[in-house]
């Protein structure tokens, strides 16, 4: 090859990718939802065939409201209440990501939402991690090696965050890489869970916080100043603290935006999802490009592959088509993500130097 490969979906699938923000219960295959619903006797699905169900999830999530978007998870969580269900969903998650060229993924889910059929919190985590391990083994056999780790999420409207934080620390040597809080932001500030974050800091544990998605700059300020998070889940509303009177290079950053950029705090941006939930009005108005040009540590993520009918390759292609990015840009975003991963430094460096850089070198020609 004498030049770069064309930037299309097929070639982007070949590119090694790192994913930091992907919800396990937002990435099921529609066929799996149907089959698990039959197995566990769940009869409230809104459609009874694969095509119609996939379409329903996509259309229901495309509401412009985070609260309505979150309602779609009622059906996926309902079929993830058994050991077999959790193992299968986790196994298929790892395989699907690997088939799309993802070489490192942090997949998050809320164990407290999977207790309806008698499983304990520890059992929920054990079965999910077992599924990830099996999925990694199968992916490697298929020629698509991947490293999958897990973030344990606490629901911000509930009162179990300290318990989930302890669970994350208990399992951090067995496949759990960190902690997160998620759910509707408005009315549920991250400071409601300070005891969880204090426990995590005391135990030198990594954590991210959903902030600056549906709610504005105060959410980001609290997540950083009072909770001390390592990364920002979404964080698109950091632009509330950026004034661009003319050229991008003349942008004026406020105190919070400057802090985020100066400290290299990663932004887990999810383009398609951010449009669906109304966090941004449209893809061409997404602040991804502004933040990238201002040299924030931006990363590309899927959020919920089922609800957004997307993949990592699809998200990258949308950014290429919208903002004109090339291979070197996609490589930078991927290395940004890998630098920000919640795994030990030598492992991050190994994936960057041995997998990501050589993979992009081939694509760049």
Automatic annotation (TrEMBL):
Domain of life: Bacteria
Site (Important for catalytic activity): 234
Residues reported in the UniProt entry to bind substrate: 23, 25, 183
Key words, A-Z: Hydrolase, Metal-binding, Nucleotide metabolism, Zinc
Cofactor note (record): Binds 1 zinc ion per subunit.
GO terms for biological process, alphabetical: adenosine catabolic process; hypoxanthine salvage; inosine biosynthetic process; nucleotide metabolic process; purine ribonucleoside monophosphate biosynthetic process
One Gene Ontology CC term in the entry: cytosol
Adenosine deaminase domain residues: 16-357
Listed SUPFAM superfamilies: Metallo-dependent hydrolases
Pfam families: A_deaminase
PANTHER family in UniProt: ADENOSINE DEAMINASE
Record's function text: Catalyzes the hydrolytic deamination of adenosine and 2-deoxyadenosine.
Similarity annotation: Belongs to the metallo-dependent hydrolases superfamily. Adenosine and AMP deaminases family. Adenosine deaminase subfamily.
Protein name according to UniProt: Adenosine deaminase
């Amino acid at each position: 090859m004498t030049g770069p490969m064309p930037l299309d979906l097929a070639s982007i699938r070949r590119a090694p990718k790192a994913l930091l923000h992907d919800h396990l219960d937002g990435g099921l295959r529609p066929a799996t939802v149907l089959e698990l619903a039959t197995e566990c006797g769940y009869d409230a699905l809104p459609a009874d065939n694969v095509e119609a169900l996939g379409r329903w999830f996509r259309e229901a999530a495309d509401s412009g409201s985070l609260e309505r978007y979150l309602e779609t998870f009622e059906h996926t969580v309902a079929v993830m209440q058994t050991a077999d269900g959790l193992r299968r969903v986790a196994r298929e998650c790892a395989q699907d990501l690997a088939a799309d060229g993802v070489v490192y993924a942090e997949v998050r889910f809320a164990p407290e939402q999977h207790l309806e059929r008698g499983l304990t919190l520890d059992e929920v985590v054990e079965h999910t991690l077992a599924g990830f391990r099996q999925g990694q083994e199968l992916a490697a056999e298929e020629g698509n090696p991947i490293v999958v780790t897990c973030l344990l999420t606490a629901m911000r409207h509930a009162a179990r965050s300290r318990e989930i934080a302890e669970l994350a620390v208990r399992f951090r040597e067995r496949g759990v890489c960190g902690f997160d809080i998620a759910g509707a932001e408005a009315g549920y500030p991250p400071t409601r869970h300070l005891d969880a974050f204090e426990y995590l800091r005391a135990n030198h544990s990594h954590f991210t916080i959903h902030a600056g998605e549906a709610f504005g700059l105060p959410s980001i300020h609290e997540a950083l100043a009072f909770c001390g998070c390592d990364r920002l889940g979404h964080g698109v509303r950091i632009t509330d603290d950026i004034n661009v009177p003319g050229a991008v290079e003349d942008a004026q950053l406020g105190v919070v935006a400057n802090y985020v950029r100066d400290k290299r705090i990663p932004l887990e941006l999810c383009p398609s999802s951010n449009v669906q939930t109304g966090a941004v009005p449209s893809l061409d108005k997404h602040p991804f490009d502004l933040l990238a040009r201002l040299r924030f540590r931006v990363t590309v993520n899927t959020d919920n592959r089922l609800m957004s009918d997307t993949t990592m390759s699809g998200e990258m292609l949308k950014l290429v088509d919208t903002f004109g990015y090339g291979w070197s840009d996609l490589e930078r975003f991927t290395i940004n993500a890998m630098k920000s991963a919640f795994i030990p430094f030598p492992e991050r460096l190994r994936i960057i130097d041995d997998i990501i850089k050589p993979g992009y070198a081939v694509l760049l020609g």
